[in-house]
Amino acid sequence: MKILIIGAGGREHAIGKKLVDSPLVEAVYCAPGNPGMKKDGIQPVAIADTDHEALILFAREKCISWTFVGPEIPLLNGIVDDFVAADLKIFGPTKRAALIEGSKSFAKQLMRECQIPTAESQTFDDYEMAIAYIREKGAPIVVKADGLAAGKGVVVAMTIGEAIQAAKDMLKSHRFGESGNQIVVEEFLAGEEFSLLAFVRGTEVYPMVISQDHKRAYDLDKGPNTGGMGAYSPVPQISQGMVDEAIEMILKPAAQGMVEQGRSFTGILYAGLIATVDGPKVIEFNARFGDPETQVVLPRLVNDFAQVIDDLLGNRSIELEWSQDEFHVGVVVAAEGYPATYETEMMLPDFSDEPHVQVYYAGVAEKEGRLVGNGGRVYLVEAKAETLEQAQKLIYEVLERKDTTKTFYRHDIGNKALEAVEGKVLSKR
Ligand code: AMP
Ligand code: GLY
Q: In which pathway does it act (predicted)?
């Protein structure tokens, strides 16, 4: 098989590596990709992910067996619809189905109709009505831009003043452009967060193992929200009962609901969940793999990943197997300043002499044959070990040895699992 991946980040690097590892796969291309991927045999292709016409031409010329879409923007731009219209195989949801990620108010409506547990909420385009609702509900309260905002359009407000400011930034100052012309104001959910992803084909749901992302920029969940600063899998403090409940009460009804609405979803469905005392509740749906969750979840897949996608595309049934006896941890190294204006062009360390970690590249460019920073999240260092502590140690010892000038990373990825003490563990469900 020859495969084309759409996207450029660490998630796409992890998807590509898993495909390169398959004996069924002859070549893996990634458009636009990044130069860091080349170390794992993935070939970057200089075509933008918005240029569907050029991508279709490329897929035809190279006799690509099928294309895998990483990020949400091409999905919402209808890349799957365009490839299908050109009679090319592609894995991902159509534009209509990707709306589950593209509009938070649509997702909320779906959840209401399918009785999927989520935070109580209301949608507003009127500022005065939004602040009246915020005042009525009180703080803490969460204000979200309706459309895409790269994980940054959410304000968890601890005071009414903060919530009103957020509503003003979005509805009046248009801080997120059109994405914030409508906002969702929702109840604050207390509990631990986890990410549950699944391969979905219409009403069929094949869940993956769970992981936990770290959205805040700095240690101890301080600082602004980012696209994600690190992840680990498994998440032992979230019980299998909680996960099973999420599969039955959230993923399956969501897939079913999408089919009933004429928006049948095929692709990766991602549920961002909070383990509350009343069971799992949804804080977001995404129509794709998570970044950095993929970098710690996909390595646990025992099946041949290329075979799994090929079977899903070929309407054959699949049975997934996941490694159970190892912990995977991934620490994002970001450019100083991220998620605001950040440093670029810093020289990146060489990891080729570090056999115990895997590096997934994201915001990088090539300069005189060396990799330099060229994005907010620059790369992720991943390791696996028998225990979470051992995996953390492998990563942090490597990072301490390297020159990480003009970049930063969190030092506490995975600590929530270590801190979860008996009694606090949500294992009784
Ligand atoms: P999102 O982009 O929807 O994943 O939101 C970003 C972050 O805000 C999440 O990872 C959570 O930490 C937090 N968050 C979102 N919605 C809620 C909620 N209803 N209650 C508590 N925290 C939330
Ligand atoms: N890690 C969060 C996301 O991919 O949306």
A: Purine metabolism; IMP biosynthesis via de novo pathway; N(1)-(5-phospho-D-ribosyl)glycinamide from 5-phospho-alpha-D-ribose 1-diphosphate: step 2/2
